[in-house]
Structures are given as structure tokens and as C-alpha cells.
Amino acid sequence: RKEVEQDPGPFNVPEGATVAFNCTYSNSASQSFFWYRQDCRKEPKLLMSVYSSGNEDGRFTAQLNRASQYISLLIRDSKLSDSATYLCVVFHRSGGSYIPTFGRGTSLIVHP
Amino acid sequence: NAGVTQTPKFQVLKTGQSMTLQCAQDMNHEYMSWYRQDPGMGLRLIHYSVGAGITDQGEVPNGYNVSRSTTEDFPLRLLSAAPSQTSVYFCASRDQLAGGPISTDTQYFGPGTRLTVL
């Protein structure tokens, strides 16, 4: 079982819809959590950090549930430009470093 | 400020050939890493470095070597290319001191190298 799991989708939604993705992780010692966005054939770019208290940035809201070991990303009022793959990233401590593990990504397609 | 640069953008190799993928960053980041991305597999960590002269293995290190002689450069060497190494390779750097906690991830990725091994 992969350490970080995501539903690959695709999630196919109309403009203006609200869509939510989850990402589960297996390492209970995981310490930091993030969402990245990756456009087709491009490099990943940081979308937002995920804090225990929740984190909101405009139409995007990220949540962390440590008890159930998952993080979520909610996108409100979807735009065509939100079409992309969303990657969750989980960091755990290994020796003296923090090591990231990426999920496989969830594909979002927003249509007119 | 160019960020993270990678060369080449595209490369085709024959089985058994060796080559070096170049990665450089001008942000004075201590932490650098190499990933490969395959369809349906997400990004997998190959090797990483927490500073000049220090490297360590990630999830899929076999068939790859790295060195970190300077803060700026982190080349990835394929010793004897195999078709299983056909992938997109991303280099990344992060502004984080080794051993320090992170609450925000300032990880920057290069544009990637698309490698095909025949």
C-alpha cells in the first residue's frame, strides 16, 4: 500500500461547481502537509500548505484530520483554469531530514 | 533570478549509454532533490541532498548517482541507461535547513527533462 493515496479521478465538473479531493496517508508520524498543482507537461507548483486549524486562500480551502490521517482540498466556484492535476505531499522525519512523499495526483477537469 | 534550471529538456538514449542530467539553482537553497514522474505513479524521490557534500537515497535510487560539490548544482547521473528509466525527471530545491521543522514548503521545481531510453 502506497504511503500517500489519492483518487486519480478524473473529476469532471461544470464551471461554478464545488469539488473536494481527499488524500490519505499511512505514516502517523507525518508532520507537514501540502497541496501542489500540476498542469499538463509542466512542473508542480505549490498551491497551499495544510494546517491543523485549516487553511483558506480565496476559493481554496485545505483541511487536515490527524485522527483519520487525511487531508482535503475544497475548491469553490470552479473555473476553467482550475483544470489540472492536484498532488498532495506529506513530509515525515527521516534521520536529520524531512522527506516528502507525493500522492499520485487527482485530475480535475472543469467544463463550460 | 532564474530559479531552478534543468538541462537538457529532452533526451533520447540507447540502452547502456550513460548521461548526466544537469540541475542548478540560484536561490542559495541547501536542500535539493531529484524526482522521476511516470504515468499513474506520481513523483518518486530518487536522491536528495541537504547541503554541499551531503547526499542520500530516496525511494528509487537504483541506477542513478548524484554528487553535490557546490550549493548551486546537483547533477543526476545515469550509469547505464535502461528502458525502465524512461520518464520525466524533475529537480527541486527547497529553502529549509536540515533537521529544521517546516511549516511552509518553499519547494521550487525545474521545468523537467523528458528522457526516453530505447
Rg over alpha carbons of chain A: 14 Å
Helix run count of chain A: 0
- What characteristic shape of chain A results from the CA principal axes? globular
Compressed to H and E, one letter per element, the order of chain A equals EEEEEEEEEEE
Oligomer: heterodimer
Strand content of chain A: over 45%
Order of helices and strands of chain B: EEEEEEEEEEE
Mean pLDDT of chain B: 90
Question: How many β strands of chain A by DSSP?
Answer: 11
Radius of gyration of chain B: 14 Å
Write the layout of secondary structure elements.
The complex is a heterodimer of chains A (112) and B (118).
Chain A: E1 4-6, E2 11-14, E3 19-25, E4 32-38, E5 45-50, E6 55-57, E7 60-65, E8 70-75, E9 84-94, E10 97-102, E11 106-111
Parallel strand pairs in A: 2-11
Antiparallel strand pairs in A: 1-3, 3-8, 4-5, 4-9, 6-7, 7-8, 9-10, 9-11
Chain B: E1 4-7, E2 10-13, E3 19-25, E4 31-38, E5 42-51, E6 54-57, E7 64-66, E8 76-78, E9 87-94, E10 108-109, E11 113-117
Parallel strand pairs in B: 2-11
Antiparallel strand pairs in B: 1-3, 3-8, 4-5, 4-9, 5-6, 7-8, 9-10, 9-11
Structure description:
The complex is a heterodimer of chains A (112) and B (118). Chain A starts with a strand and ends with a strand. In chain A, the strands form 2 sheets. In chain A, strands 2, 4, 5, 9, 10 and 11 form a 6-stranded mixed sheet that branches. A 5-stranded antiparallel sheet of chain A has the order 1-3-8-7-6, with no helix packed on it. Chain A is mostly beta strands. Chain B has 118 residues and is an all-beta fold. Helices cover 0% and strands 49% of the residues of chain B. Chain B contains no helices and 11 strands. In chain B, strands 2, 4, 5, 6, 9, 10 and 11 form a 7-stranded mixed sheet that branches. In chain B, strands 1-3-8-7 form a 4-stranded antiparallel sheet, with no helix packed on it. In chain B, strand 4 and strand 5 form a beta hairpin. Chain B is globular, with a radius of gyration of 14 Å. The interface between A and B is medium-sized, with 25 and 29 residues.
